[in-house]
Amino acid sequence: FLVGKDFGASPAYLFSILHPERVLGVITLGVPYAPPGPSMLHKYLPEGFYMLRWKEPGRAEADFGRFDVKTVVRNVYILFSRSELPIANENQEIMDLVEPDTPLPSWFTEEDLSIYGALYEKSGFRTALQVPYRTVGDDLK
């Protein structure tokens, strides 16, 4: 069996299509099957949805670049700890959805923030944005 969750679901589906002899079954969580090909996300999601905003090259970098790395990490953990997913208005960016005085989620400590901030300070956000946001729906070669 092959198991995939969230952005790991699509590779699990694709692997099972390309190598059916190697897979007895596929179990996925969070993402229903969609045939390979161009993404249809833009048809079903609001324009200000974080996935669409971060898919656009340069947009997240400009949004994140207004803040230090630790603040970006803080904001991301706050945003994705809410019950609703972040959707920006037309004149907003995703980072604008967090007030500076919003506390961290109870399960994410200042020590966690320092560690993740230091790691992203070294690596940047490019890979985190490229995989998966900017590769969703890419044509298969």
Structural class: mainly alpha
Rg over CA atoms, rounded to whole Å, is: 17 Å
Number of helices: 7
Oligomer: single chain
How many strand elements?
A: 2
Biggest β-sheet description: 2 strands, parallel
Could you state the order of secondary-structure elements as H and E? Answer: EHEHHHHHH
Give the overall shape: globular
What is the distance, rounded to the nearest whole angstrom, between the alpha carbons of the first and last residues? 25 Å
Overall number of domains: 2
Residue runs with pLDDT of under 50 for 5 or more positions: none
Indicate the mean pLDDT: 89
Report the β-strand fraction as a percent range: 5-15%
In percent, how helical is the residue content?
40-55%
Strands of the largest sheet, in order across it? 1-2
GO molecular function, one term: hydrolase activity
Protein name: Bifunctional epoxide hydrolase 2-like
Keywords: Hydrolase
InterPro entries: AB_hydrolase_fold
Report on this structure.
It is a single chain. The chain has seven helices and two strands. The protein folds into two domains: 1-36, no CATH class; 38-134, no CATH class. The chain has helices at residues 9-18, 41-44, 50-55, 59-64, 69-79, 110-123, 126-134, and strands at 2-5, 26-29. It has a two-stranded parallel ribbon with strand order 1-2. The mean pLDDT is 89. Helix 5 crosses helix 6 (110-123). It starts with a strand and ends in a 7-residue tail after the last helix. With 141 residues, it is mainly alpha-helical. InterPro entries: AB_hydrolase_fold (IPR029058).
